[in-house]
Write a structure and sequence with these properties.
By secondary structure, the protein is α+β, with helices and mostly antiparallel strands. Helices cover 25% and strands 35% of the residues. The chain is built from 3 helices and 11 strands, in the order αβββββαββββββα. The protein has helices spanning 2-46, 110-113, 204-207, and strands at residues 49-51, 56-60, 81-82, 89-101, 103-109, 118-126, 133-139, 144-150, 160-172, 180-181, 183-189. The strands form 3 sheets. A 5-stranded antiparallel sheet has the order 2-4-9-6-7, with no helix packed on it. A hairpin with a 6-residue loop joins β6 (118-126) and β7. The longest helix has 45 residues, at 2-46. It is elongated, with a radius of gyration of 23 Å.
């Protein structure tokens, strides 16, 4: 009986050690993901593009309670938006004014989400829901990480102007019904201010302060 107790206690200790090791590995992976995401954001802010998603109103066609549209923009790769309805699953990004659009980035992970992972995505843009047109049709094969989609109409044009962007998940891996998307970012070209260039104001209030007195 004493041998059994000792063996049992050893099994408990080994099990706890394995659980602690797995937890430590998960923490390391999470920190690596967050640091990579932060580095990516820093490169974007310093480069020739800027993230403009904060200027828009975001909405989705459906969402499971507790996995709403806000999780697409919480900068946390461990959370995700989950749809709760028939395909296609839609994410709408509406701007108050027509903006310059350059790139769309989504974070998806087949290893974590399996049949919830998008397989075919349509990116659409327009002035309203009535004149949306497809910009890109993208097929994903077991993606793991950031997927970057150019929104430029052609190689000769650096940006697209639109009020509304719609991302439509047309199908998932393994014929899954609902979908998971962990993060979405949308970028526009950075507009540099030329020193010495005179800005023309159109209102009297701004024009009255245009010169130093």
């Amino acid at each position: 009986e004493s041998r059994f107790v000792v063996r049992r206690s050893r099994q408990v200790v080994v099990k706890r050690c394995r659980q602690e090791e797995q937890q430590q590995q998960q923490v390391v992976v999470k920190r690596c993901r967050q640091s990579m995401d932060e580095e990516e954001g820093e490169r974007d802010e310093k480069g020739d593009k800027r993230e403009i998603g904060k200027l828009a109103v975001w909405s989705v066609s459906s969402a499971k309670p507790g996995n709403g549209v806000d999780l697409l923009r919480d900068s946390n790769l461990d959370t995700y938006w989950q749809s709760d309805g028939g395909q296609p699953h839609l994410v709408n990004v509406q701007f108050q004014k027509k903006v310059r659009l350059q790139q769309l980035a989504i974070y998806v992970d087949f290893k974590l989400d399996e049949s919830y992972t998008p397989n075919k995505i349509s990116v659409r843009a327009g002035n309203s829901f009535h004149d949306l047109r497809e910009i890109k049709l993208v097929e994903l094969v077991e993606p793991a990480g950031w997927v970057y989609i150019s929104m430029c109409p052609s190689d000769s044009v650096d940006f697209l102007r639109a009020f509304l962007v719609q991302l439509a998940v047309l199908s998932n891996h393994q014929n899954g019904r609902d979908t998971h998307i962990r993060q979405i970012k949308i970028y526009g070209p950075r507009q540099s201010v030329v020193i010495g260039h005179q800005v023309q104001f159109t209102s009297f209030e701004f024009s009255s302060h245009a010169t130093i007195r």
